[in-house]
Amino acid sequence: MSDAISSSAAATEKVKHGLAAGDVAPPSPDWTIDQGWANYTATEHGVWKTLFERQTKLLQGRACDAFVEGMRALPMGPDEIPDFRKLSDVLMKQTGWQVVAVPGLVPDDVFFDHLANRRFPAGNFIRKPHELDYLEEPDVFHDVFGHVPMLMNPVFADYIQAYGVGGLRANKLGMLKQLARVYWYTVEFGLVKQADGLRIYGAGIASSYTESIFCLDDPSPNRIRFELERVMRTNYRIDDFQEVYWVLDNLEELLELDRIDFAPVYARIESQPELQPWDVLDGDQVLHRGTGTYHDAKRRSAAGS
Ligand code: HBI
Ligand code: FE
Fold first, then answer.
1. Residue 248 in contact with ligand 1 by CB distance below 6 A
2. CB neighbour list of residue 43: distance below 8 Å, 6 or more residues apart
3. Which 3 state secondary structure label does DSSP give 102?
4. Is 102 in the pocket of ligand 1 (CB under 6 A)?
5. Which ligand sits nearest to residue 205's alpha carbon?
6. Ligand 1 atom index nearest CA of 180
7. How many alpha carbons fall within 13 Å on the CB side of residue 142?
8. What tens-digit pLDDT sequence spans the chain (305 residues)?
9. 134 CA to middle of ligand 2, Å?
10. How many angstroms is it from 142 CA to the middle of ligand 2?
11. In the β-sheet with 244-248, what is the strand arrangement from edge to edge?
12. Looking at residue 260, what is its pLDDT?
């Protein structure tokens, strides 16, 4: 099972669950809490170490240069769960971002407001030793190991802020579903071309052992050139590996989000059919046409044939 994170509908229930499970103080108006760094147990630091070492080794030659450089410059290593204050000190100097602790998924408007103000909300809890490869809501390994290195990159730092601003506007225009797809297929599951081949920049992949392999090496998924409006029209799956990965030529392409005029884009999209993750259109620049083997087999077994 991939490190996919379900969102929205079940968010309130999951946040409650997170509070109970994490035994943390009630959230403030902006949902932030103290990280409670001193309260982590040796077992919890141990889970971090296991995940960190496994993933760092795997990501060599798989993560993009920006991810590797960001990781190298941050006070983050195998020995302990990072202290958000120390991360924020370094991030603030580099790109003006901070990491703030939250108990789990937070409501969309709260999430966007944090991003629009260059605060990244990170879960302060960590998965249990027996569930290393599965999580229902973003924990500290996904949020900090997966997301924070890219926040050290100036272009990506601006992009996530623009997503927060765009999210607040999309919410008002009733187009959140379409904008959330952009986040999903870029910030969480994006790939980028480098001179030495395709590389991972999405945090949902970078924090997942199995999907870090699947997204680059498996013949099953489609790999298609990123196109903003195409992505806005395409559904995604939260329960398994992605069936399609969208590939950037470079990270600068993401800044298109900062430049777009949302109203006309949303008007265009609304007049066009919604697309499924397995669809390939005539206009798509297909880098790898997937065999579909992986998801077809799952669909067959689900249909019982
Ligand atoms: N809350 N903590 C947290 N992390 C997320 O990634 C997150 C969230 N709330 C809402 C949300 N993501 C998404 O539903 C939006 O990007 C649409
Ligand atoms: Fe995430």
1. no
2. 129
3. strand
4. yes
5. 2
6. 17
7. 27
8. 334 443 333 333 233 333 333 444 447 999 999 999 999 999 999 999 999 999 999 999 999 999 999 999 999 999 999 999 999 999 999 999 999 999 999 999 999 999 999 999 999 999 999 999 878 889 999 999 999 999 999 999 999 999 999 999 999 999 999 999 999 999 999 999 999 999 999 999 999 999 999 999 999 999 999 999 999 999 999 989 999 999 999 999 999 888 888 888 999 998 999 999 999 999 999 999 999 999 999 989 888 86
9. 13
10. 6
11. 197-200, 191-194, 244-248, 222-225, 286-288
12. 85
At 77, give phi and psi (nearest 5°).
-150, -175
CA of 106 to the centre of ligand 1 (A): 6
Cα–ligand 2 centroid distance for 223 (angstroms): 21
What residues make up the domain containing 181?
3-20+28-304
- CA 7 / ligand 1 centre spacing (Å): 7
171 token code pair: 């919410």
Domains in the chain, number: 1
State which ligand 1 atom lies nearest to the alpha carbon of 110: 9
Centroid of ligand 2 to alpha carbon of 220 (angstroms): 24
Q: 193 in helix, strand or coil?
A: strand
Give the strand pairing for 191-194 and 244-248. Answer: parallel
Backbone angles phi and psi of 279, in degrees to 5: -70, 140
Structure tokens at 150: 């890219």
> Among all ligands shown, which has an atom nearest to the Cα of 121?
1
Ligand 1 touching residue 8 (CB < 6 A): yes
What's the CATH code of the domain at 51? 1.10.800.10
Which of 30, 106, 161 maximizes ligand 1 atoms within 8 Å of its Cβ, making it the mutation to test the pocket? 106
Give SS3 for 188. Answer: helix
Q: Is the CB of 138 under 6 A from ligand 1?
A: yes
Structure tokens belonging to residue 39: 């309260």
Helix (H) / strand (E) element for 200: namely strand 197-200
